[in-house]
Each structure stands twice: as structure tokens, then as C-alpha cells.
């Protein structure tokens, strides 16, 4: 099936159409039509036809004399459109009937239903976006947290692409130095100094490593932070879990029984999405944690980014912390539960502790804020200038590029391999980057050799 889609999606001469908004009841829907015949096809159904590109026009949408809607129609003449081709955007009324009837009319006049992602794919093929930016669009649509939103927007803006293009240029320049060394060893200037080559190699290695250093933070952004709720039975953990789900404006997913011993739900509240984990219940066990009367999902404890140590009393919290501290490397937030029942004198106030009531909602917002800042403090300290790696494809490519550059460096320093053989690793690293950004052009190396070294002198 995916092959079938790909072969259809490859046909650039087709004019494609789709409803860009989710199906269902809604005030408006957006229908997009793009391709070489977009204007000719739409014209049969839109009256009056907009006289200018990029100016919204209220028109009637019709089919065979039948009125389908009154809608706002905007033309984008290629190449100044998202896809690069002539594009018509119709903002119609929403709902189950209107948008579909308009698409049907356009299809009968020659447009084809777009395959998933086909508008963006065209944008890439027409050079409007690179592959990384196209991926960013999908990340933006899938974003479950502000952090993911910002990371995707940075990537869409070309933040990552620029870094990788620079990296590729640096690698090609290094290849050129080696090539010069190979081709003109008897030049007056002598071969390129070993220090210069080592320096350039170090720079490249450093940049690759700094990009890869964002992987843990990027993973957190993409996957969400695992927040484990621990404490004695009856402490109010499940109530807190439910109250936090209710509190967060966006419950993204609820995953019952991801493991048999815990409930997990993803909520988006602050910068990060949180994967809240509640221990489902106490079972007969020889597990020392449970024998001590502390409920916590062991399986999640080692994966936790934050642990909430919940109990009604100071002693209960201390005991919980003592039990889990050695098992969890993650920061622990002491949480006093059921504060609606606690008299003022018994309220605890340690640094970073939070008092909550699942019953009244007191402290819940505070707790979400503390979780957010704890995560940011512990895991979010990455260079804000660095684009964050959140995509497995990117991480894999940059790791292989780094491995190639390190292989080059080793054989170059050891002077074990002749330069032409060592430089094979550089070529491989360049190729990996080119695949990553979707541009493969070997001619660049030659351009660089001539440009940098004035061979004609
Ligand atoms: N008054 C009050 N009761 C609570 C609160 N949170 C939980 N409870 C009660 O405490 C009992 C145990 O709660 P539960 O969430 O099941 O605790 P768990 O065993 O730690 O998951 C239940 O009867 C809850 O109604 C709270 O904030 N205020
Ligand atoms: Mg419970």
C-alpha cells in the first residue's frame, strides 16, 4: 500500500486536493488544491474568480449550477505558494457535508485526492522546504508540549538545516585540504600543514558532539518526562493522579495497563509533556519496597525523570524518600497529600515541597509548576543556540557521521593509512549528512578544491 501511495504521490503533473482541517463539526474548513491545473479546475466552480493572487475573495462555490457554499477563496500563483505550484485555498463552512461536496466537485473536474503529506512532499520536491523542515511540520502538528512546539518551529525556521549545511561545508573543506595534499605534495607552499587538518577535524568533531549532546534533552521533549507517584497505600496517590489529569487542560492520552503494575497517562501542562505514572495497587509480593508499605512501580522508578514522594505526614514522606532514594536517580519532590484535612501546625514546608489536596484542588497548579521547573533545571540545560535533536533519523545520521570522522582522525593521526584511504571516511560522513538533508551533490567537492586553493596559480 505504501508503495502504491508513493507511486501516485510521485506524479508531480497531477493536481491534488484535500481538506486540510480535521473532519467533523466546525465553523470552518480549509480545502487546498495545488498543481499545474489548480486554477483551471477551480475556476469552473468559483464565481467570481479572484482577480489577484494572495487576496481573499468571497465567492460562490458551485457545481452544475448547484450552489455548494459561500466561501473565501485565495489564489497563490506558483512558485510563491507553500507547495511551489499554483494553489487555491478555499475557506468553506465546516461540518460533514460542505467541505466534502467541494472536494468532490474539484475531483470530478480533474483533481486527485492528495496522499498523506503530499502537499509538503511537493514543497520539498519544488525546493520550497528541505527534508528537515518538512519533518518539522509533521512534528509541529504532532506536538504535545510547548517544548516540542518550540523545537519544531526552530527546525522549520531552518535552525538545524543551517547547522548541518555548515557541517557539510566544513567536511568538504577538509576533504579539499586532503585532496590538495594528495595531488600537489611538491607545491612550493608544501602540503597543507598537519596542524591545519587536525584543527579542522577537531572543529567538526566538536560540532557533531555538541549537537549530539542535546539528545537526552531532545528525548525528553519528544517522549515527555516520566513522573512517578510513590507513597504508602491510601496516601491519596490515585486521587492525585486523577486530579492532575483533570487539572491539566490537555489530556493527551490515557494508557491503562501499559504495564500490569501501573497506570500511565500523558498530560501537557508546562513546557514538557508529562507521563504520569500511578501504581495500580498493592499485590502479594516479596518486593522489599512493597513490604515496607511503599507503593511505587519499580519498573518505572529507574526510568523516572521525577518522583513524587506522597504521604499525609512528614514521617510518611521521609520514609517514602528513604525507600526510593537509592533506586531512583531522579529528583524527588516531597508532596504532602490531603492538606484539606491537615491543620496548619502539621503542614510541612521543606524547600521544594508541595502541599496538595485532590479534594479541593489546592496546590495542584503549584505541583505542576514545581515538576516543570525541576525538569528544566535537571535536564533542560542545553545551549539555547543549539538546535535540539528529537528525531531518530537525525540522531542516527549524526552518530554515523561522528564515527566516520573519528575513524578518519584515528588513521590520520596514526599516519597508518595513506591520505586517500583515510579520506574515504570523510566522504562517507559527507554522504551521511547529504542524505540527512536530502541533497546529494558530489560536484561540490571539486568546486571547493578549486575555490579554496587557487590551483591555477
Ligand atoms: N479529604 C481528602 N481525602 C482524600 C484526598 N485524596 C485522597 N483522599 C482519600 O484517601 C483515600 C485513599 O485515596 P487513594 O487515592 O486511593 O490513595 P492511594 O492508595 O495512595 O492511591 C480515599 O478514600 C480518598 O478519597 C484529599 O486530597 N483529601
Ligand atoms: Mg492507588
CATH H-tier superfamily of the largest domain: P-loop containing nucleotide triphosphate hydrolases
Q: State Rg.
A: 29 Å
- Proportion in helices: 40-55%
Which ligands accompany this protein? guanosine-5'-diphosphate, magnesium ion
Overall shape: it is: flat
Sheet with the most strands? 7 strands, mixed
Question: Which class do the helix and strand fractions yield?
Answer: alpha/beta
CATH top level assignment of the largest domain: Alpha Beta
Give the tally of β-strands.
14
CATH architecture of the largest domain: 3-Layer(aba) Sandwich
Share of residues in strands: 15-25%
Average pLDDT level:
84
Overview of the structural elements:
- The protein has helices spanning 2-9, 38-43, 98-108, 118-125, 131-142, 146-156, 159-183, 194-212, 215-223, 237-247, 288-291, 298-301, 314-325, 364-379, 392-414, 419-437, 443-453, and strands spanning 16-19, 28-34, 46-47, 57-63, 66-76, 87-93, 112-113, 225-230, 250-259, 262-268, 273-279, 306-311, 332-336, 354-355.
- The chain is of the alpha/beta class.
- It has 3 domains: 3-128, Probable tRNA modification gtpase trme, domain 1 (Gyrase A, domain 2), CATH 3.30.1360; 141-214 and 388-437, Four Helix Bundle (Hemerythrin (Met), subunit A) (Up-down Bundle); 221-379, P-loop containing nucleotide triphosphate hydrolases (Rossmann fold, 3-Layer(aba) Sandwich).
- Helix 5 (131-142) runs antiparallel to helix 6 (146-156), helix 7 (159-183) packs antiparallel against helix 8 and helix 8 packs antiparallel against helix 15.
- The chain starts with a helix and ends with a helix.
- Bound molecules: guanosine-5'-diphosphate (GDP) and magnesium ion.
- Guanosine-5'-diphosphate (GDP) binds at residues 231, 233-239, 337-338, 340-341, 357-359.
